[in-house]
C-alpha cells in the first residue's frame, strides 16, 4: 500500500453520488488548448484529479455547451474567446469564475501566464477535494510574496541535516539519466500550494555542488521543476573559489575571486537558463564568509549579487549568525551584525531571517531584525522539519507557530507593522519579498515521516502564498484533501492539530523557556546540559535556574536584548504587568515564588504547564482512537503508534524538567499531580 505517498493530492473518489453528479454535469466538456509544457502539466493534473474524484474525463471541445463546459487558459492560449484578465492579479495570480462567454454560462480558469493557469487548476481541484459548490464561482487570487522557497538541508551523500524522513530524495548516483517519479510528484505538490523555488542542498554547503559533474545532474532536476513553475537554487560555500577554483583566497573584494564567481555563474546559467540564485550561510557555526577575509556581510552578498544580476538571479543571505566569541546573549548577535548594513545591500539580495532570534525553538518572540531594516529586503525562514519539535515522531501542526510570528506587531512603522506586512513589502514597495521553509521531506514512503508532518509542508506553502491565511482553514483543507471529508473526523482532528503546537510548548519549554533540549541531537530533554562544547549550546546558559529563580533577564538590568525592539514592544515585554506568560522567562529572571496572573507561584505554574502538556497528548490519543474506521487502516495505525511514543516522550520531558528544576526550587509538586513515572 502507498498510503500517504500522494500527500494532499489524493483525489479520493467522491462517495456522495448526488454531489458527484452535480460536479460531473458541469464539467462535461473542456476547452483547454495546451501547447506549452506548463499548460500540458496543468491539463494532465486536471484530468488526473477528475478521474480520481469523479471517474470522468471531460471531452475536449471547441464550442461551449452552456452550463457544462470548463474553459482554461491564458488570453493567448484561449485566443478567439475574448477572455480578459485584470492586471490586479499579477503574473502569478489566477481567476476561477462562473462566466458568460458567447452568452453561454461556463467555468473559466484564467491567468496572465501559464503558471498562473497551473495554480488556478490546482485551486479548482481543491474546491472539489473540499466539496465546494462550483456553480457560482468568483475567485481572484494572487501570491502576496514573490519568492516562496523550500530549503533542503540535503547533503551530497544523501544524508539530510535535521532530516527525520529518510534520505535525500535527490538520487545523485542515478541522476541525470534517471528521473524518479518522485521529482515530478514533489514538483506537483509544491506547485499545488504555490511554492516556486527549491534550494536543493544544505546550507552547510559542499563546494562540489558547483562542479560540472553535479551541474549536469542539477540541470535534470531543474528541467522537471520548470514545468511546475519552480526555480532551482543552490546553497554555496563562500570559500568555493579556494576549494574548487584553487585560488588562494575567497576575499569578496579580490578581482580573481569576483571573476571566478562571475564565470561560475555564467556556467550555471548555461546549464539552467532560469536558475534562481544562491542561498548563503556565511560566518556562522564555522562556515567561511566575508568576515574570514576582514570584509562585511554586505561585501560578500553584494559581490555574488553583482555576478547574478545580469541573469536575474538573487542572493538569499542568511542572518543566522553566531561565532566563537560567545556573547552575553546570543539572541542579540544577528541584529548587531546586520542592522548597521540596512540599505547597503544590492536590490537582488534578500536577507533570510529565522522566525526568532535563537533557533527555531518551540516558541520564540519574533526576530528583532523584522522591522529594523526598512531599506533592506528581508525574507522569513521557518523550519518545517521538527528539529526542536519531536522530530517526525510528535504531531505538531506548525501553522499556529507561523501565524503567531507573522501576526506579531513590530510597531516599527507604528501600530499594525506586523511581520506579515513587512514580509509582503508593504512598507517599502521597492524591495523583493520572500519566505523560506526548511523542508521536512525525505525518501520515506509518506515523504515526511509522520503523516501529519505533511501538513507543515502544505501550510508553509499556503502561508507563503498569503501570510494572513488562518491556520484553522488551512488545517481543514489539508485534512479533507489528505484523508476524508467526514465532518466528524475533520472537526475533531482539526482541533487536535490546532492545539498540538501549544501542547508541545507545554511539555517542552513552557513560559518562555528555550534551548533546554538534548545536546547536538536536539532530541529529548536536557535542561542539565552545561558542557556542550561552548556556553551558548548549554541549556544552563538559557534557563539560568538557581535557588533564587529561573529565566533569562533580557531587560535593561540584564542583556538588554529588549532594546533591539521598537519602543512599544520593548515596554510591553519589559513590564511584568503586560509581558505575556508565553514570553515571561525569555525576557525575565524571576523568583520561584513570583506570583503569576493565575494566582499560582511561578513554580506551580511551571509544573502545571508541564503536566498539562503531557496530559494533552494523552487526550489527543483518546480522540484519535475514536477515528478508527473513518480513514484507511494503515495511516490510522501509524498515527496511533506515533501518538503512544509521543506520550511516552512528553512524559519524559515533563518528568525530567520538573525534577531537574525542582532541585533548585526545592518546592513540592502539587498534590493533584500524578507522581513522575
Ligand atoms: C541549527 C541546526 C543546524 C543548522 C543551523 C542552521 O543550529 O542545529 O543543524 O545547520 O541551525 O540553520 O544553519
Automatic annotation (TrEMBL):
Keywords: Carbohydrate metabolism, Glycosidase, Hydrolase, Polysaccharide degradation, Signal, Xylan degradation. Residues 128-447 form the Glycosyl hydrolase family 67 catalytic domain. GO terms for molecular function: alpha-glucuronidase activity; xylan alpha-1,2-glucuronosidase activity. One of its GO terms (biological process) is glucuronoxylan catabolic process. It catalyses: Hydrolysis of (1->2)-alpha-D-(4-O-methyl)glucuronosyl links in the main chain of hardwood xylans. Residues 448-672 form the Glycosyl hydrolase family 67 C-terminal domain. The keyword Cell inner membrane does not apply. One of its GO terms (cellular component) is extracellular region. It is an enzyme of class 3 (hydrolase). It comes from the Bacteria. Residues 7-124 form the Alpha glucuronidase N-terminal domain. Pfam families: Glyco_hydro_67C, Glyco_hydro_67M, Glyco_hydro_67N. The keyword Metal-binding does not apply. Its EC number is 3.2.1.131. The active site is at 285 (proton donor), 359 (proton acceptor), 387 (proton acceptor). Homodimer. Belongs to the glycosyl hydrolase 67 family. This is Xylan alpha-1,2-glucuronidase.
Amino acid at each position: 500500500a502507498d498510503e500517504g505517498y500522494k500527500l494532499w493530492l489524493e483525489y479520493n473518489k467522491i462517495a456522495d453520488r448526488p454531489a458527484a453528479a452535480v460536479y460531473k454535469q458541469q464539467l462535461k466538456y473542456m476547452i483547454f488548448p495546451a501547447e506549452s509544457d506548463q499548460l500540458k502539466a496543468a491539463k494532465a493534473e486536471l484530468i488526473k484529479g477528475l478521474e480520481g474524484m469523479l471517474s470522468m474525463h471531460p471531452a475536449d471541445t471547441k464550442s461551449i455547451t452552456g452550463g457544462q463546459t470548463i474553459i482554461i487558459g491564458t488570453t493567448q492560449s484561449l485566443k478567439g474567446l475574448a477572455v480578459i484578465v485584470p492586471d490586479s492579479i499579477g503574473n502569478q495570480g489566477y481567476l476561477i469564475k462562473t462566466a458568460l462567454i458567447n452568452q453561454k454560462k461556463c467555468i473559466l480558469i484564467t491567468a496572465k501566464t501559464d503558471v498562473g493557469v497551473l495554480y488556478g487548476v490546482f485551486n479548482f481541484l481543491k474546491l472539489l477535494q473540499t466539496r465546494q459548490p462550483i456553480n457560482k464561482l468568483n475567485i481572484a487570487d494572487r501570491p502576496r510574496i514573490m519568492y516562496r522557497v523550500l530549503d533542503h538541508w540535503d547533503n551530497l551523500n544523501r544524508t539530510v541535516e535535521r532530516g527525520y524522513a529518510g534520505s535525500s530524495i535527490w538520487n545523485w548516483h542515478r541522476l541525470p539519466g534517471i528521473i524518479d517519479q518522485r521529482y515530478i510528484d514533489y514538483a506537483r505538490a509544491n506547485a499545488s500550494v504555490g511554492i516556486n523555488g527549491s534550494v536543493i542542498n544544505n546550507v552547510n554547503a559542499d563546494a562540489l555542488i558547483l562542479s560540472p559533474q553535479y551541474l549536469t545532474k542539477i540541470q535534470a532536476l531543474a528541467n522537471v521543476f520548470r514545468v511546475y513553475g519552480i526555480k532551482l537554487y543552490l546553497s554555496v560555500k563562500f570559500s568555493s573559489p579556494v576549494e574548487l577554483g584553487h585560488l588562494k583566497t575567497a576575499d569578496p573584494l579580490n578581482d580573481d575571486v569576483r571573476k571566478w564567481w562571475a564565470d561560475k555563474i555564467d556556467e550555471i546559467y548555461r546549464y539552467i537558463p532560469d536558475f534562481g540564485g544562491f542561498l548563503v550561510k556565511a560566518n556562522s557555526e564555522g562556515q567561511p564568509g566575508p568576515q574570514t577575509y576582514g570584509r562585511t556581510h554586505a561585501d560578500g552578498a553584494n559581490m555574488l549579487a553583482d555576478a547574478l544580476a545580469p541573469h536575474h538571479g538573487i542572493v538569499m543571505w542568511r542572518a543566522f549568525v553566531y561565532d566563537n566569541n560567545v556573547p552575553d546573549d546570543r539572541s542579540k548577535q544577528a541584529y548587531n551584525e546586520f542592522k548597521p548594513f540596512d540599505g547597503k545591500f544590492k536590490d537582488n539580495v534578500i536577507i533570510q531571517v529565522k522566525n526568532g532570534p535563537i533557533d527555531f525553538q518551540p516558541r520564540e518572540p519574533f526576530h528583532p531584525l523584522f522591522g529594523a531594516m526598512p531599506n533592506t529586503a528581508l525574507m522569513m525562514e521557518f523550519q518545517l522539519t521538527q528539529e526542536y519539535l519531536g522530530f517526525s515522531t510528535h504531531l505538531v501542526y506548525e501553522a499556529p507557530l507561523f501565524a503567531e510570528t507573522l501576526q506579531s506587531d513590530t510597531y516599527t512603522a507604528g501600530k499594525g507593522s506586523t511581520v506579515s506586512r513587512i514580509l509582503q513589502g508593504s512598507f517599502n514597495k521597492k524591495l523583493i519579498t520572500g519566505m523560506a521553509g526548511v523542508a521536512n521531506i525525505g525518501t520515506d514512503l509518506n515523504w515526511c515521516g509522520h503523516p501529519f508532518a505533511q501538513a507543515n509542508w502544505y501550510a508553509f506553502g499556503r502561508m507563503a502564498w498569503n501570510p494572513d491565511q488562518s491556520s484553522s482553514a488551512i488545517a481543514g483543507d489539508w485534512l479533507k484533501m489528505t484523508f476524508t471529508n467526514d465532518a466528524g473526523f475533520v472537526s475533531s482532528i482539526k482541533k487536535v492539530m490546532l492545539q498540538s503546537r501549544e501542547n508541545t510548548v507545554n511539555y517542552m519549554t513552557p513560559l518562555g523557556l528555550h534551548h533546554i533540549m538534548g545536546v547536538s541531537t536536539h532530541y529529548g530533554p536536557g535542561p542539565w546540559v552545561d558542557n556542550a562544547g561552548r556556553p551558548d549550546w548549554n541549556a544552563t546558559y538559557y534557563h539560568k535556574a538557581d535557588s533564587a529563580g529561573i529565566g533569562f533577564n533580557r531587560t535593561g538590568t540584564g542583556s538588554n536584548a529588549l532594546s533591539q525592539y521598537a519602543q512599544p514592544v520593548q515596554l510591553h515585554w519589559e513590564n511584568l504587568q503586560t509581558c505575556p506568560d508565553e514570553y515571561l522567562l525569555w525576557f525575565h529572571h524571576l523568583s520561584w515564588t513570583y506570583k503569576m496572573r493565575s494566582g499560582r507561584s511561578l513554580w506551580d505554574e511551571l509544573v502545571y504547564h508541564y503536566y498539562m502538556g503531557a496530559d494533552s497528548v494523552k487526550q489527543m490519543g483518546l480522540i484519535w482512537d475514536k477515528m478508527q474506521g473513518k480513514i484507511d487502516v494503515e495511516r490510522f495505525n501509524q498515527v496511533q503508534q506515533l501518538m503512544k511514543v509521543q506520550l511516552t516522550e512528553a512524559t519524559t520531558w515533563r518528568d525530567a524538567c520538573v525534577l531537574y528544576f525542582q532541585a533548585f526550587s526545592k518546592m513540592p509538586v502539587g498534590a493533584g499531580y500524578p507522581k513522575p513515572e
